[in-house]
Automatic annotation (TrEMBL):
Lineage: Bacteria, Bacillati, Actinomycetota, Actinomycetes, Pseudonocardiales
Name of the protein this chain belongs to: Uncharacterized protein
Amino acid sequence: MPVTHTSVDAEAAARLVAFGMRPKQLPARDVVYGELVRRYGEDNAFKALTHAVASGLGLMVLEVTQQAGCVLAATDESVFEIKMDSYARQAKIRERRETEKVLHGLIHLATAALGYPRPDDLANDTYIGRVSVEQVDAMVREAARVLDERAQLAEANNDPLADAPELEQAWRAYARRPAAAATKDGRMAADTTRGMVSRALRFLADQGFLVQVSDEQGGTYRTTPRYQIQVRELAADAAFDDLLALDVVAVAGAGGTLRATASDTLQ
């Protein structure tokens, strides 16, 4: 016998999706949100209806938990998909050329890899990672050094760099930018790599993926359950695997704090 849904059910499912579109809203802070999340976990019909409502809006429901809430991702060509131009406006990126896209892609990959450097970290729902502007910048610069060596070896073996993964083609643009420089009024210059990283991490914080905990190391952030779910999806990306394979992430222990590497001294 087919399952029928009332308008009340549809409204409730739509409300759950709407909560998921508010990145900083959490079930623990809203009784209605918490009840909808509970219902999603216990009522398969309501769960299916929620997925159908999200799909109709061009969204996918990645996961729904009391810790993270309703975590959504936009499908291709969805009106909710964050395009580079939109991200550039929100992150206040001055240039939107292809090079800038790649550089910011590297920054976001490095942030995810530093936040969850081991498979067990992604699988452990209680794990909290920490990342800082200086650590992310140092990681990308160390990756650039490793990729430089790989590129030189490829050229020596007559293996054109153009045939290498996209990650290997991006290192020059990042490495030739200064890590840090101050403006006349003492602020971090926008076109430095740490300035780029700082804007990227603030953007992730605005999306509910990170929470700033201090101003140390250019700004230090902790990860959120919402971000963990998103990174689980990202971990299937080949570029993420390429970055982790470079072995430039150092892990101190289960507490989520990363120890400094030699690359932290790079400027």
